[in-house]
Structure formats: C-alpha cells, structure tokens
Amino acid sequence: MPRIHSDLHHLKTSVDTDVSVSAAPTHAAASPVSRRFVLARLGMAVGLVGVVGCRQLVRDPSKDGTKILVATTGMIADIARRLIGDEFQVVQLMGDGVDPHLYKPTRDDLVQLIRADVVLYNGLMLEGKMQSVLNRLGEVERVYAVCDDIPHDVLFGGEDHHPDPHVWMDVTLWRSATQRMSDAICLAYPELAAKVQGREDELVAELAGLHEYGQNAVASIPESQRILITSHDAFQYFGRAYGLTIQAIQGISTESEAGLQRVNEIVDLIVDRKLPAVFIESSVPRDTIDAVVQGAKARGHQVKIGGELFSDALGSTGTYEGTYIGMLDHNFTTVARALGGDVPPRGWKGQLSEHTEQ
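Structure (tokenized):
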C-alpha cells in the first residue's frame, strides 16, 4: 500500500471552490463515454473542439504507454521530476521568468491539461486566470492542488479574501506540498509507490538541509539590516521562516499597482535605517525598485540593487538556479551577501552561478 500523508478522499481544487475528486482514479471509475463527453464539453467551452477534434482531446494511455504529468509552475514541475524520475513525461506549462498571476493558458496548454494522467497545480488562486479550467477538469481527471494540506492558520492573508499563495518561499511548507505531490502520484499509479516514496525520503532530507542553510545565512546578517525590500509581496513566508522583515512596493499579485505614496514610504525607511540594498525580481519589472533607488539617492543615501531574486518562477532551464533547491539557495545567498551577512560565494552546494552586480 502507498504511504499516504494526506486525506485525498475529498479534495478541493482551490480554497474557494469545493469540487470533490475521488482519491481513486476518477476517470478510471467513469465510463469511457461519460469521460469523453465531459472532456469534449470542456474542449468546446475553451474553444478546442474543431481545432484538434474530440478524439485527439481524449488520450488512451494504455495504448501509447506514456504517462504524462502536467504541472503549472516550475517549482511544482521540478519537485515532480525529482519524485518520478523517468517514469513520466513532465510537462511544465509556465516557463522561465513567467508570472503565474498574469498567465493565460494557451490552446496548447489546454490540450496538455485535458490529455494528462495527473495534473498538479499550486492552488490558493496563484493560477487565477486558469482556475475555472482546472475546476472543470477536476470533475473527471486526477487534478490536485498541492497546497491543500497546508493548515490555513499558517497561511498569510492575501488579496480578495484569498490566502497568500507564495508558500514555496518557506522550505518547511513546500515540504508539505512535496508530500502531497508524492501522495497524488502514488494514488494514481500504486505500482510506482515504492520508487516514488524512496525518492521523496531523499528529497525531504535535502530540503531539511536547505532550510537550515537559510536560517544560518539570514542569522549572519547584522540584526539592524534584516529588512528585505522587493518589488511585490511574494516573500512573507520567506521572512517569517528565516527572520527577515519584508517590505514590498506592490501587493501580493503583480496586477496590483505601486502608488507614489508607497514608493516614498520605502524611500523613507531606507534612508532612516541606512539600508545597504534592495532587490529586483526575475519575473517582475524593475521600474519601481529603480524609482526607490533614485529616490534614496535624491535624499543623499546610496542604496544598491543587491541582486535579482527568484519569486514566482525558477531560474533558467538547465541551470542549478532552474531547480527549486537552486532557487532558494540563490535567494538565501543573494540576500545575505547584499545585507552584510557571511555566506559561501557560490551558495549552500557551491553550484550557484558567479555573482554579478546588477
């Protein structure tokens, strides 16, 4: 029997939409006709039928032998690859530097979702513009929101009554998401459970080491300088877990706008506390951070851009920073170095790219 961390017998595909999804393969229990009918209706709803045809929308994995897992973000896709090895083809919908708050699925994405054996997504309204498609698909397919097992009392409040979705910034919370991914894969394919659970154990141990490195890196920063200033409010979990005060110019979603008053408040803070650095983000335009730097300069204080942090997306594909562990290692190391801490030049594992000034 697969080792199951969570109760997957009644799932929510999002925190605000209650959609029951059986832990046992839902589409295996449904008749081929009913499943094809539901998926074809979804295809028509999103304008796919007539473009690719009903038969192409419904793939029979027993005939082609390929197992397909679709993940919305790079953070999820990277963990899934670690868990399943070569057993599945992993399709990542959102590529390098893509902002999930603003992402709109393409027709190719929708075809991939409909044809997948397992779909993993963040939830907590991170994928807001594709939530309705995920909800509809969850009626007949194995669709799992990986953050569903995280207790709501540890989540930060967000915008429009939705929790802050950036939970991967706290390695201990992302470990819970990792266990949920493992559960979902093992329930879908019990014959792979032993392999997947063995890889999960190795990964959880590695995440524990990464979390400890993050704590030590931030602890090396002078206490008066443990203030992280970023473009948008993606680092609250990061700050709580590792001991930083977070000040963001924009809100949790990058759709929110930064007002002049907020820019001036950040400039006041920098000048008053004589902070040495602020940070840009890889998936967010840097205009507001540049405005803060210029505002501080006009007040007689030189503040540098301490580096580019990864917030809503991993680094470039094929690089160490293009993995979840590399993403967090980069963020810990970049923040600590710029704010006066003592960290290894190339991070926890010695695999970070050479540091360059922004």
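The chain is about 40% helix and 10% strand. The CA atoms of residues 41 and 49 lie 8 Å apart.
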